[in-house]
Amino acid sequence: MNSLVTILYPLSLLIFILLQGSFYWAILIRRLSNPQFGSGSVPKLYGGFRILDLVLLISVFPFIVWNTQSFQVAILATLIRFVICYN
What we know:
Layout: H1 2-33, H2 41-67, H3 71-85
Helix pairs in contact: 1-2, 1-3, 2-3
Transmembrane segments: 6-27, 47-64
Keywords: Membrane, Transmembrane, Transmembrane helix
């Protein structure tokens, strides 16, 4: 069970970051028709997302080390983490 959790945490973080990107592009597309759309609230929202992403990315590696029972799972979870950081 710990192996599953160790893999799911970085994958769920990747999905969370990809959803943020989808919202970002949806807002940009909406701004094409209405240039004032979200001009005040969107920068605050993405500033909060940036801080939340940083905290979650920093917490991935200790989480992997703490919950890993096998070396292969640790390697796989760490590789997923690096894919998240470099994309």
